[in-house]
Specification:
The protein is α+β, with helices and mostly antiparallel strands and 101 residues long. The protein has one domain: Glutaredoxin (3-Layer(aba) Sandwich). The protein is 35% helix and 26% strand. It contains 3 helices and 4 strands. The chain has helices at residues 15-32, 47-53, 79-88; strands at residues 3-9, 36-42, 60-65, 68-73. Strands 2-1-3-4 form a 4-stranded mixed beta sheet, with helices on both faces. Strand 3 (60-65) and strand 4 form a beta hairpin. The chain starts with a strand and ends in a 13-residue tail after the last helix.
């Protein structure tokens, strides 16, 4: 089962900043998640959606799981923090390489 991530970014920030956020999340997903999808949403372009999703700062990741929606905030460069969060949410791959249920 694929995990669905939505990455909210602020397009008024320099592109280098949000491109790094996209790269960091993609790399992290490739390393530990397995089957995943990432949707990029620019906060300024989709204000109503951001408000509906409860997103008020960037970068913000929304993770859709069977048990509900989770929100992860903060700098994507802190990969150790994100590793811990993904393990805590039980969405990292097990040692055999398959995603956990």
């Amino acid at each position: 089962m694929a995990l669905n991530f939505t990455l909210y970014l602020n397009s008024s920030f320099p592109r280098s900043i949000w491109r790094n956020d996209i790269k960091s999340l993609t790399k992290l997903c490739q390393q530990i998640v397995g089957d995943y999808s990432i949707e990029i949403v620019h906060l300024a372009d989709q204000k109503r959606r951001a408000f509906h999703d409860g997103v008020f700062s960037t970068p913000t990741i929304l993770l859709e799981q069977a048990c509900g929606r989770r929100q992860i905030l903060g700098d994507m460069a802190d990969t150790e923090r994100y590793l811990k969060v993904m393990h805590a949410l039980n969405c990292a791959k097990d040692p055999e390489g398959s995603a956990r249920p």
